[in-house]
Amino acid sequence: MSERLDLIIRNGSVVGLDEVRFLDIGIKYGRITHVQEGLLLEAEQEIDASGNIIMAGMIDVHVHLNEPGLGDWEGFASGSAALAAGGCTTYFDMPLNGVPPTVTVAALKMKLAAASGYSHVDYALWGGLVPGHLDDLEALNEAGVIGFKAFMSAPGDPGEEAFREVDDLTLWEGMKRIARMNRVLALHAESEAIVSRLTREKQAAGEVAAADYSASRPIIAELEAVNRALFYAEQTGCALHFVHISSEAAVQQIVEAKRRGMDVTLETCPHYLALTDEDLERMGPTAKCAPPLRSEAEREKLWEALRLGWIDMISSDHSPCPGELKESLDYFEAWGGISGAQSSLEVLLDEGYVKRGIPLPHLSRLLSYAPAQRFGLLPRKGEIRIGADADLVMVSLTKGYELKAADLWYKHKHSPYVGRKLGCKVLATWSQGRLVYEEIAGVLAETAGEWVKG
Ligand SMILES: NC(=O)NC(NC(N)=O)C(=O)[O-]
Ligand SMILES: [Zn+2]
Ligand SMILES: [Zn+2]
């Protein structure tokens, strides 16, 4: 009896870890069963991917959804819809910007209750390392967080129950405990001492324009925090992951730590690769984030670092908010965080492949394989291979378009990428073999995304 598959995606240019080949992909029960030329089997449904590329779905390790508590900012349904439309099939939700923040098992359960049944694609959940909650780390670990996240500078936090930055002692003690659990600590690395002082000085002088905000968070603040965190990690043996690294010098520090044998990775975000401090001035606080967008020269240095293989992965750092919070003329007052979840893959392929000719397998590793490897999702996710979840995205590299606010699936339809011309387009996304997004139909109604336990 000949086997009948659920889905075959034929003739796509399949992006592997090292090469791109014309292959057919067979799928049954949500898993990839075949990856080969001229697959002779039949399936319930066949897709002709000729002329398009097929990649493993993006794994976005850095997304802030605001449920529970602030679902009117962004919920699991809207946030994951945007991710699906952008070719992301697994995301990691950050432990802050919801109320309560995910710093206890009770809060983790509330996250899970808000997410389960509402997410279009699969998700994992970060736990928080904050002062006063060291004794919650172990239980959070056992409950299945993917890792822990701490801020070294004060986070913008919308809740009344604030997610606080760590003091040095909490950082050191937290690292000791997280090392024992064999988990990764993700760090927002900016020096609170430097940033808070410069912020107060600027505000006191009434200097609150874009350039003032940028100047209040200089690269040295990132370097100092990275340096200090590496020191504590060396003392404790804790594995680190630096989020949203914005400068080439910080990349260098981390690369050197790797060469010394440290267990450390870093991500940067599409906005540091696509936008600059001049865009912040031109666009207004829509493009405000921390660390801030840097100079054009810094942006090109980051691309060079990426080419050299010094950047481990790309994440969106999607940090949404209602549009009103992006309208202030005071750049310190406006919400810090970019709505970018839907655009990561397209912006990276447009800037990286279409404009700079960086090979697709390299970009695919940054989007999918490296995050899966770092956070223990291999061999189930992160790669197009037999036995893996059929988490796939089909992209046209010829169908360019201009992103419009109406294209966005966010609850609040603002993004610094609105109005941007992109030289590629996500045509379809599959999560465990289910079509979750298609260019014409949009995001499909079914919300069967599953929790990926750490
Ligand atoms: N509270 C936040 O969402 N913070 C985020 N905001 C940014 N990046 O501007 C972050 O990751 O630091
Ligand atoms: Zn951050
Ligand atoms: Zn963030």
UniProtKB/TrEMBL annotation:
Family: Belongs to the metallo-dependent hydrolases superfamily. Allantoinase family.
Cofactor note: Binds 2 Zn(2+) ions per subunit.
Pathway(s) of this molecule: Nitrogen metabolism; (S)-allantoin degradation; allantoate from (S)-allantoin: step 1/1
Domain Amidohydrolase-related: 53-436
Organism the protein comes from: Paenibacillus pectinilyticus
Protein name according to UniProt: Allantoinase
Lineage summary: Bacteria, Bacillati, Bacillota, Bacilli, Bacillales
Enzyme class (EC, first level): hydrolase
SUPFAM superfamilies from the UniProt entry: Composite domain of metallo-dependent hydrolases (SSF51338), Metallo-dependent hydrolases (SSF51556)
HAMAP family per the UniProt record, alphabetical: Hydantoinase
Gene giving rise to this polypeptide: allB
A cellular component annotation (GO) from this entry: cytoplasm
Modified residues (N6-carboxylysine): K149
Listed InterPro entries: Allantoinase, Allantoinase_bact, Amidohydro-rel, DHOase/Allantoinase_Hydrolase, Dihydroorotase_CS, Metal-dep_hydrolase_composite, Metal_Hydrolase
